[in-house]
Design brief:
It is built from ten helices and 13 strands. It is α+β, with helices and mostly antiparallel strands and 386 residues long. The strands form two sheets. Strands 8-9-11-10-5-6-4-3-2-13 form a ten-stranded antiparallel sheet. Strands 7-1-12 form a three-stranded mixed sheet. Helix 6 (232-257) packs across helix 8 (281-296). It is globular and about 60 Å long.
Length: 386
């Protein structure tokens, strides 16, 4: 079987939302009005921690596709002031968030036990609050949310190969700035962090053979598999990876911005930043290359994400192991493309409605498990009861 990224077609039912005249669609999608629609037409469950489980109206896959959003649309009206990563949410919210993640991942593994038949992933992408609202490719909802998806591997096998030069596939490692110039120091920095449950693995063992992705990213196997997700220490280590990534990203782009800048004042791992990053010639010379280009190329400089932008995943590899990986986040790309799955969404109400009953049945099953675990109350919509 030839390996390569695949492009699948996913039908959706057009959303009956009228965007006010003179307002960009991504501006409207960040409004409280749109979030009301998300809750009342697609909401599955909400809890006092402001976590909202909902059906993806513009989904990646119609096999299983749901998200949890930290819905601060009414408590924080400024979209630029909303939390966009786990390190910015209250501890009680993160505690419930982690438990919800564990239950939904466990459900997906139970319903789709064979790694040859289903690609399973859960993860989040940062919604960088430094992005202007009108920038191309800006996230449609500027609040912290994550994804839970299942792809039928037979559908992927039958799909057309995606264009390798698709810009949305270029942050998986093969063209990434981090990997092209700083792959060794990137891995060395992560290797310096202390883990008990997460075990760093080779890039080949973390790769999905069908797509050939992820490419060139640091990856960790979860010792104990799904059972380990019930251990709060796993989620602390999961956060350590994010904090390490934030340190690497901030240290690098601080050097790009200001030559010979010191360790960022808010670094989580200041000793490693100083000894591993700021004393590494590849790291420092790469910062110089980017800085020099920013000075002479306004378009290039405008595309820089100066604050940490990431995608972090838990997914199942071909051997059935659960793998954690993290990548910098390019403009416009979806979280699925980290695993080599490009989704082409097409409006087709009839095709969507043909698969909708089975999809909703699975979403309501997982909702019931969350309710039983005291993680929220059901929401009634035109499509299902509370």
């Amino acid at each position: 079987m030839q390996s390569g990224p695949r492009e699948i077609v996913t039908p959706f039912r057009p959303i009956p939302l009228d965007i006010p005249e003179g307002m960009a669609s991504n501006e409207f999608f960040n409004s409280t009005e749109n979030l009301n629609d998300l809750e009342h037409n697609n909401g599955l469950l909400k809890n006092p921690e402001d976590l909202l489980l909902y059906r993806k109206a513009l989904g990646h896959t119609n096999e299983f596709d749901t998200s949890i959003i930290y819905n601060t649309s009414k408590s924080i009206l400024d979209p630029l002031g909303r939390p966009v990563r786990r390190t910015q949410v209250p501890e009680e919210t993160k505690h419930s968030w982690n438990r919800m993640n564990q239950i939904i991942i466990d459900y997906m593994l139970e319903k789709y036990p064979d790694p040859d038949e289903a690609l399973i992933l859960a993860g989040e992408a940062s919604l960088d609050a430094t992005w202007p609202l009108t920038s191309p490719g800006v996230p449609s909802i500027r609040m912290l949310h994550n994804h839970f998806m299942v792809f039928d591997k037979q559908v992927l096998r039958n799909a057309e190969f995606a264009d390798h030069d698709n810009p949305n596939l270029t942050d998986g490692g093969q063209h990434s700035l981090f990997q092209a110039y700083m792959g060794d120091v990137y891995s060395d920095f992560f290797a310096s962090l202390d883990f008990d449950i997460l075990n760093q693995v080779s890039k080949d063992s973390s790769k999905i053979e069908l797509t050939g992705y992820p490419q060139g990213l640091p990856s960790w196997k979860i010792r104990g598999g799904a059972e380990a997700l019930k251990d709060i220490n796993f989620w602390k280590e999961y956060d350590q990876i994010l904090k390490g990534f934030i340190d690497f990203y901030r240290a690098f782009f601080t050097q790009v911005s200001t030559r010979n800048a010191p360790v960022p004042a808010d670094a989580y791992f200041p000793q490693q930043v100083e000894s591993i990053l700021l004393f590494n010639n590849c790291f420092m010379s790469s910062a110089k290359k980017v800085r020099d280009l920013c000075v002479i190329d306004a378009k290039y400089a405008n595309l820089i994400r100066w604050q940490p932008a990431f995608k972090q995943l838990i997914y199942r590899n071909d051997e059935g192991d659960l793998i954690v990986t993290i990548s910098q986040n390019s403009i416009g790309n979806a979280i699925t493309e980290l695993l080599g799955v490009v989704v082409k969404r097409v409006p087709d109400a009839a095709a969507y409605e043909a698969v909708e009953p089975a999809l909703i049945e699975r979403l309501l099953e997982v909702r019931e498990r969350l309710i039983d675990a005291d993680l929220g109350e059901g929401i009634e919509t035109p499509y299902w009861s509370a």
